[in-house]
């Protein structure tokens, strides 16, 4: 599961670099880590906008 997420992340970075698109790596690493944690704990990914809204933080407080 982690290998798949990292592979997707590297593929995204590679495509962006090939296209000449600038990517804020720091902004992409936090959701990557959150996705891996959610997959391991809850068995599913969260939505990217949920990360910004604090939904992930709320989920962890419930545990």
Describe it for me?
With 63 residues, this protein is mostly helical. It has one domain (2-62). It contains four helices and no strands. The chain has helices spanning 2-19, 25-42, 48-53, 55-62. Helix 1 (2-19) packs antiparallel against helix 2 (25-42). The longest helix has 18 residues, at 2-19. The mean pLDDT is 80.
Low-confidence stretches: none
- By secondary-structure content and strand pairing, the structural class works out as mainly alpha
Give, in order, the helices and strands: HHHH
Tell me the helix content: over 70%
Task: Provide mean pLDDT, rounded.
Answer: 80
Cofactor: heme
Main location: membrane
Family: Belongs to the cytochrome P450 family.
Keywords: Heme, Iron, Membrane, Metal-binding, Monooxygenase, Oxidoreductase
Summarize, please.
By secondary structure, the chain is mainly α.
Write the layout of secondary structure elements.
Blueprint: H1 2-19, H2 25-42, H3 48-53, H4 55-62
């Amino acid at each position: 599961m982690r290998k798949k997420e990292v592979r997707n992340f590297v593929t995204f970075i590679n495509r962006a670099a090939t296209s000449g698109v600038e990517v804020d790596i720091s902004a992409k690493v936090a959701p990557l880590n959150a996705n891996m944690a959610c997959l391991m704990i809850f068995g599913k990914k969260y939505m990217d906008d949920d990360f910004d809204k604090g939904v992930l933080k709320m989920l962890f407080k419930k545990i």
